[in-house]
Design goal:
Blueprint (H helix, E strand, L loop, with lengths): L1 H22 L5 H30 L1
Helix pairs in contact: 1-2
Length: 59
């Protein structure tokens, strides 16, 4: 799970950096947006996997 979360967060942050370099704005809008969004997505997948494993333990 930690590896999956790391890949999602690093991928989102890297994508934001690449877009900010391509557009060449002064403020890193895409880096901040994609970083926050990727953390939210990673936490979502973590909770989803956690609840799925919890249901399997209760059976």
């Amino acid at each position: 799970m930690a590896f999956q979360m790391g890949i999602i967060i690093l991928g989102g942050s890297y994508g934001g950096v690449v877009l900010d370099r391509h557009i060449d704005w002064e403020f890193p809008v895409f880096t901040i947006t994609f970083s926050i969004l990727s953390v939210v997505i990673a936490v979502y997948f973590f909770i989803k996997d956690l609840l799925k494993s919890d249901k399997n333990l209760n059976k």
